[in-house]
Amino acid sequence: MVVKRGDKFPTNVSTLFISSPEGEPKPFDLKAATKSKKFVVVSVPGAFTPPCTNQHLPEYIQKVQNFASKGVDFILVVTQNDPFVLRAWKEKLGATSNKILFVSDPYLDLSKKLGSPIDLGGLGLGTRSSRLALIVNRSGIVEFVADEKGGDVNVSTASKLLAKL
Q1: Which residues form a coiled coil (predicted)?
Q2: Of 50, 53, 58, 158, which one has the fewest beta carbons inside 10 Å?
């Protein structure tokens, strides 16, 4: 892994995108969005994939208020999929809270800085972000957990991350 507990969270990524309220992709300024914030990053291999859709993200969506009660400003969901797909996925998951942001990392620039890309070419998916979660407080990484293989949802669950806050 490239990052670990105690490292500074990499905010110098200019190739992230988010869906605007109108549905159009727009650049996401990671540095501005995270400045002086306490936030959680959840990186997943792909929108609409069974483990991400059925196991991983629903718990974060259900427990968003639990994170907020622990001082977390927002949860940042990062994956390679484009902003149009992420908007549809967010709607499908019922993630209506403005405390959950779905961010596209199309070139895996943030994922590479976190040390998480994995080769899922054998599944027809190409190179993707692996499954991981971080707690970041004022740009410092205070917790980092990764499910190295990408398919399993074990150590990066919402419950396990909440227990570390």
Answers
A1: none
A2: 50
Average pLDDT, the chain: 89
Task: Please compute the mean of the pLDDT values over residues 94-101 and round it to a whole number.
Answer: 94
The runs of H, that is alpha helices, within the chain are 30-34, 50, 57-62, 64-69, 83-93, 109-114, 158-163
| Residue from 18, 41, 52, 108 carrying the catalytic annotation | 52
Q: Could you give the CA distance from residue 103 to residue 100 in angstroms, rounded to a whole number?
A: 10
Query: How far is residue 120 CA from its own chain's centroid?
Result: 18
SS3 36: coil
Global pTM reads 0.91
> What domains can you pick out in the chain, each with its CATH number?
17-163 (3.40.30.10)
Identify which of 14, 17, 44 has the alpha carbon closest to the alpha carbon of residue 31: 14
Q: Which of these ranges, 37-46, 84-93, 125-134, has the smallest mean pLDDT? A: 125-134
